[in-house]
Amino acid sequence: MTATAPRHKLIKKIKDQKFDEEKLHQYILLAQIGAKDFQVAVIDSDDDRLIFFEDYVFNEVNSQADLQQALQDLFESHEYLMAGFWKHVRVSIKNNKFIQVPASLFVEQAADEYLRFNAPIDADKETVVTCSNHRTDGITIFAATHEMINWLNKVYANSNVKIVHQSAALIEGVLASATPGENPLYVYVDRFKLHILFLKDGKLIYYNQFLIKQFTDYVKYIMLVMKAMGLEQETSRVILWGYIGKNSPHYQEFVKYVRNVSFGERPSHLKFGYLFDDIQEHHFFDLYSAYLLP
Questions:
Q1: Where does 12-106 have alpha helices with state H?
Q2: Are 24 and 71 in contact (CB under 8 A)?
Q3: Model confidence over 211-239: pLDDT tens digits?
Q4: β 88-93/27-33 pair status
Q5: Fewer CB in 10 Å around end: N or C, the chain?
């Protein structure tokens, strides 16, 4: 009988020398699940130090069922992911089935109805989940499959597990990183999507995500949002995080259209050892920011 090749491919792994398998009970596990990728990080709660990181992509994953199986295979073969005694577990879901609602207007019993304004829901297959953003006093409502939610709750039945959404993490991270008195456009380039945020006087004015099919889509959507927010293409500052290299052809082309671009820094709420110098500072901002969510 021929063994089936794993669908997951490890892209990057970093393990700090301070990681101690005997101390998982004081560590916080962050995981982020996308349609075709997965990241995991471990943080020591004693000093907010990142001590373990992995980045995976999935091959031949074309449906939710494929994704679920790929995740289960990865977890079952992993040395730490199935451990059930973490101090906290926070899992961030990346999808486009979400909506943000002010906490003052949120009625828990109506969560499904809020979400249906923005995305279709299959009640037979999907669970509606909520998470809070303290810095916006808002609620993010999103959907994930019953199977995914039930499986995560089962894997981490003995841990304090919270399931959140990528959009909530990005919003919280940008608000925490913003410099008072400055109102740049914040851009996060994901592997398959573009996220754009705009703050004014420390308050969230705009957030949206866009599906990217070709490079020109990046420039098109950024220009549209800049115009809508009253920003100048030549002079307004753009802060960029995500999967775009400082020396990549895409970046060189990008700055031809948007002039005042700088790369975002790592979030200040985490500490990084020298081994993490191997990861560019503007990468994985969404994963790191999930740590800020309650």
A1: 64-77
A2: no
A3: 998 888 888 999 999 999 999 988 999 99
A4: parallel
A5: N
Does 25 lie in the same domain as 153? Answer: yes
Same domain for 237 and 96?
no
Question: How many CA atoms does the CB half-sphere of 94 hold within 13 Å?
Answer: 24
CATH number assigned to the domain comprising residue 97: 3.30.420.250
Burial tier of 232 (Cβ tally within 10 Å: 0-12, 13-18, 19+): exposed
User: What's this model's pTM, rounded to 2 decimal places?
Assistant: 0.95
Predicted confidence (pLDDT) per residue in 112-153, tens digit: 999 999 999 999 999 999 999 989 999 999 999 999 999 999
Would you tell me how many other CB atoms lie within 10 Å of the CB of residue 78? 14
Domain ranges, residue 55: 8-172
251 assigned to some structural domain: yes
Specify the pLDDT at position 182. 87
pLDDT band at 240 (very low <50, low <70, confident <90, very high): very high
Asked if residues 48 and 269 have their Cβ atoms less than 8 Å apart, the reply is yes
Query: How many other C-beta atoms are found inside a 10 Å radius of the C-beta of residue 11?
Result: 12
State the Cα–Cα distance between residues 237 and 231, nearest whole angstrom: 9
- Do the domain assignments include residue 121? yes
Tokens read off for 126: 């999907």
Q: What are the b/e assignments for 188-218, b being 16+ CB within 10 Å?
A: bbbeebbbbbbbeeeebeebebbebeeeeeb
**Which structure tokens are listed for 22?**
């005997």
Quote the DSSP letter at residue 134: T
| The Cα angle at residue 70 between residues 73 and 2, in degrees rounded to 5 | 65
Q: Which one-letter DSSP state was computed for residue 151? A: H
- Of 33, 150, 32, 6, whose CA–CA distance to 41 is shortest? 32
Q: Which conformational region is residue 181 in: left (phi greater than 0), alpha (psi within -120 to 50 degrees), or beta?
A: left
How many DSSP H helices and E strands does the chain contain? 7, 15
